[in-house]
Amino acid sequence: MIKRAILFGGKAIVSVMDTTDTVNKAIEIHGFSTSVARAMGKALTVAAFMSAGFKGLNNKLTLIIDGNGKGGKMVICGDCGAKVRGYIENPTACEGEDVDVKTIVGSDGALNVIKDFGLKEPYNGLSQLVNGNIDEDFAYYFTVSEQLPSAVALGVKMDGGKCVKAGGIIVQPMPNCSEEEIFILQDIVSNFTDVAALLQEKSAQEIIDFYFAHFEISRLPDIAEEYKCSCSRTRIEEMLLTLGQQQAIEIAKSQGGIQVGCEFCNKKYEFSIEDVQRMFK
After folding, report:
1. DSSP for 135-193, written as a single string
2. Given CA atoms 189, 192, 198, 204 in this order, what sign does their dihedral have?
3. What sign for the dihedral angle of Cα 153, 149, 172, 11?
4. pLDDT level of residue 58 (50, 70, 90 thresholds)
5. What pTM does this model have?
6. Which CA distances in Å does 251 have to 234, 237, 254, 275, 281?
7. pLDDT above 90: residue 195
8. pLDDT at residue 102 tops 90
9. Given a cut of 90, is residue 42 above it in pLDDT?
């Protein structure tokens, strides 16, 4: 669940997210190693935060994190209502080891944010990775690319291959927020050194009430985020149609059919030669 509130009468927004179920669903689908689960858990949490703010049902988010780390490139997508999904090139990287997020992500690369609002061209924001920890990388991205200085604190706690607690706290001052108010928020955020442990002690709502409720607060509607893939047989058919009839039928005949796998949910779609011929009729 994502809990949100406006502070100082509209001068800042705080979002507190508990994404434990989402991270466990991702682990179940992809079989992440413990270290990869920590990194992907943080990335999925940020994607949930960003897509929670979408207004249009067809708005789409894509995050590409490529820092040349042990896990390889990460791709995370989000739809309106904080419906997220993602994959990483090496899902079992550093299996049996206990390495930090920076090792999985790497820091020699960039963060690419693509927002598609159904206009002619999607928004495309690019920033260098700061250190591969994801928290600081997105804080830097929000500040530089979206001109929204942000405090980003993320955490994922694992135990025996399962996510015990995952989530994040993101505070974004608006342009009319005073320096004094920003200083107050910075002081509060400095307490969030272990977000996963904090979420074990307090619910998302309790965190907002405890740390922020005395700042002229106005609550926003809750958003139930989840791991949800948008693939379907119809979408795969539409993709195959773009190949053209001749090429699609040639591939189907040479392989005895066509099998397409979704990288986000690992579901397989199979099309016989007859299926492919029928599509073009």
Report:
1. HHHHHHHHHHHSS---EEEEEEEEETTEEEEEEEEEEEE-TT--HHHHHHHHHHHTT-S
2. positive
3. positive
4. confident
5. 0.91
6. 19, 14, 5, 13, 17
7. yes
8. yes
9. yes
